[in-house]
UniProtKB/TrEMBL annotation:
<protein>
    <submittedName>
        <fullName>ATP-binding protein</fullName>
    </submittedName>
</protein>
<keyword id="KW-0547">Nucleotide-binding</keyword>
<dbReference type="Pfam" id="PF03008">
    <property type="entry name" value="DUF234"/>
</dbReference>
<dbReference type="Pfam" id="PF01637">
    <property type="entry name" value="ATPase_2"/>
</dbReference>
<dbReference type="InterPro" id="IPR011579">
    <property type="entry name" value="ATPase_dom"/>
</dbReference>
<feature type="domain" description="DUF234">
    <location>
        <begin position="313"/>
        <end position="403"/>
    </location>
</feature>
<dbReference type="GO" id="GO:0005524">
    <property type="term" value="F:ATP binding"/>
</dbReference>
<feature type="domain" description="ATPase">
    <location>
        <begin position="3"/>
        <end position="204"/>
    </location>
</feature>
<dbReference type="InterPro" id="IPR004256">
    <property type="entry name" value="DUF234"/>
</dbReference>
<dbReference type="InterPro" id="IPR011335">
    <property type="entry name" value="Restrct_endonuc-II-like"/>
</dbReference>
<keyword id="KW-0067">ATP-binding</keyword>
<dbReference type="InterPro" id="IPR027417">
    <property type="entry name" value="P-loop_NTPase"/>
</dbReference>
């Protein structure tokens, strides 16, 4: 299948690997995010030793690694006799003297750490010896265990300070997801993104030639659907006690957004929730944010699901598993998903608008944001999108995923709210962004044409077809 997206990341990695010096690169991110496919694309035009570690002993992994080395550099008796990782690395370095720029990619590096915790120390000794410099050796260490990979970057780790590039690979942005579905209109692409997120594995399972509904039924609402149990599979792969983690996610999906609310819902003490929530944050499955207008000392934080598939699954699939197992996927879609999807999209659209502001707001306002979030906690209003540009100017946004146009009344309401919050109150030069599925009233469109009014109207087409 054709490789799509990741243009910025590929360019940065290629720049690093083209540098006339040794490179030690750390790449990590949650499972299914496309790290291995990215690495294969990166290594296409390079001489590369690619090794994917497995959950076996260190000795068995070393033996397989030597086979991969032999496939690229040739099988010499001295290689077969080397008993240690250190010896093999020096063997490779010796060969790069005459073949500079060799790329070594070790995928699922945490599996090696499980079998040999001393490996970072071994690599540190090898790296500091100067051997990699002679041939400009390029080494990429990749893994899905985010905590173990981040530990390689911590001050206490032997490899600390030696990496020349590191990347926590996130989901694809909406504009990249659009490339998977060239026949979909903007509304369908945004809806697809709200269900499957920016996870390449999920997107590649979809058939871009059929309507979104067909993909949802086939993958999520069928007993044998590839993704019908994906949230459980993901948690079982990554975590101990997957059942409790799933319960925390279910509580958040049901609207419990503080530790006390989650604890109350699950019938446990608040203290028990904290470490589980922290782990889910580290896996990028949830986020924990504060309202932009609260005092720094106030502990006013909310949890939110950051994984679209998990959000959709808990909202529509989990409550319907009995019907799905009975073969009634079409009925589940018609009577459960379809009636509740607009409400689901209303929340998802806010997150999509926030992502737009994070990545693309400079295309509308001329500068990127230095601060971004939401405003909540007031008795009678929230603000869906808010932030500050690099020059200190504030912006506020309203999101509507309905079939009704946004009109002048919505703009007046947003302006009033911007003065009621302490965030940017009384400042001049405010910008107002209105995100609408349906569009905008004629008088609002005419009003926004005057750029001095700083009113910016954004449709699904604007979000999907943004300059990349």
């Amino acid at each position: 299948m054709k490789f799509l997206g990741r243009g910025r990341e590929l360019a940065r990695f290629k720049e690093e690997l083209d540098a006339a010096r040794p490179s030690l690169v750390i790449l990590y991110g949650r499972r299914r995010v496309g790290k291995s496919r990215f690495l294969r694309e990166l290594g296409k035009s390079r001489k590369e030793i690619y090794f994917q570690a497995t959950r076996v002993s260190s000795l068995l992994n070393l033996e397989q690694f030597k086979i991969e080395v032999a496939n690229v550099l040739g099988a010499l008796p001295v290689l077969e006799s080397l008993p240690s990782w250190e010896g093999v690395f020096y063997y490779i370095a010796e060969h790069t003297r005459n073949n500079p720029g060799l790329l070594i990619t070790i995928d699922e590096f945490p599996y090696l750490l499980d079998g040999d915790p001393a490996l970072p120390s071994i690599l540190q000794k090898f790296w500091d010896s100067g051997a990699p410099a002679d041939g400009g050796l390029k080494l990429i260490l990749c893994g899905s265990s985010i905590s173990q990979m981040q530990d390689l970057l911590s001050e206490r780790n032997p490899l600390y300070g030696r990496q020349t590039l590191s990347l926590d690979m996130k989901q694809l942005p909406l504009t990249d997801v659009a490339r998977f579905f060239p026949k979909y209109d903007a509304e369908a692409i945004i809806s697809t993104y709200a269900i499957f997120g920016g996870i390449p594995h999920y997107l590649q399972l979809c058939n871009p030639d059929v309507p979104l509904k067909d993909n949802v039924v086939k993958l999520l609402l069928t007993e044998t659907g590839t993704l019908v149990d994906e949230p459980n599979t993901l948690l079982q792969t990554e975590l101990h006690e997957p059942g409790f983690y799933s319960s925390v996610l279910a509580a958040i999906a049901d609207g419990c957004n503080t530790t006390s609310e989650i604890a109350s819902r699950l019938g446990v003490k608040v203290e028990k929730i904290t470490p589980y929530a922290a782990k889910l944050v580290a896996l990028h499955l949830i986020s924990n944010t504060k309202s932009l207008d609260v005092d720094e000392k106030v502990r006013n934080r909310r949890f939110r699901l950051d994984d679209s598939l998990i959000s959709f699954w808990h909202r529509f699939v989990r409550p319907s598993l009995t019907a799905i197992s009975g073969g009634f996927g079409e009925e589940v879609y018609r009577h459960v998903v379809a009636p509740g999807f607009s409400e689901y999209m209303g929340i998802a659209f806010e997150a999509i608008a926030l992502e737009y502001a994070r990545i693309h707001i400079q295309e509308k306002l001329g500068l990127p944001a230095k601060e971004l979030g939401q405003i909540w906690g007031h008795s009678d209003f929230d603000i869906d999108v808010a932030g500050r540009l690099l020059n200190g100017e504030y912006f506020y946004g309203e999101c509507k995923w309905t079939n009704a146009d946004i009109d002048m009344g919505h703009l007046r309401q947003l302006r009033e709210r911007s003065e009621r919050t302490r965030y940017g109150r009384g400042t001049a030069g405010k910008h107002f962004l209105l995100f609408s599925k349906a569009g905008f009233s004629t008088d609002l469109i005419d009003f926004a044409k005057d750029e001095t009014r700083r009113v910016h109207l954004l449709t699904p087409n604007d979000l999907v077809r943004t300059n990349q």
